[in-house]
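Box 3.1 A note on notation
Throughout this textbook, protein chains are presented in two layers. The first layer is the amino acid sequence; the second is a token string describing backbone geometry. Keep the layers aligned when reading.
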Amino acid sequence: MELLTPSPGLIFWTTLTFVILLVVLRKYAWPSVLRALKVREETISFALEDAKHAKEEVEMMEQKRRKITEEARKERDLILKEARQMKSEIVEEAQKAAREETGRMVEKASRDIEKQRKDAMLEIRETIGRLSVEIAEKILKEELSGDEKQKKVINKYLNEMNLN
């Protein structure tokens, strides 16, 4: 039980040692410790402040990025809309030009066909007329070679004319 009951001398020397240690530490070590703590506190404070500024800057950059992205998206949509509109205008214009060109080509082809038909008809008439004259000439030469034949042919044609 002696270990549990302190003696007065031990208490005195322990207290004295503690007080001396406290005075020495207070005079020499405590200011250094306080300075180190103060520096550490300031460093942490600056670090927290820098982190806060960095966070604000990141948020601001994120807002700018969103804004730029939205503007780019709107610009892209506008460009695509204009491109689609331009495409439809070009297609419509090309179709209109093709219809007009087709109409002109059909009209020209119709005129050419009509002209060729008229030329062919004229040529056929001329050929038929020439052939008719040649055939009639040959027939008349052959049939009208004698007086008796001439009278017979003339009477025949006169009878046909009277009947018609």
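The chain has two helices and no strands. The two ends are 174 Å apart (CA to CA).
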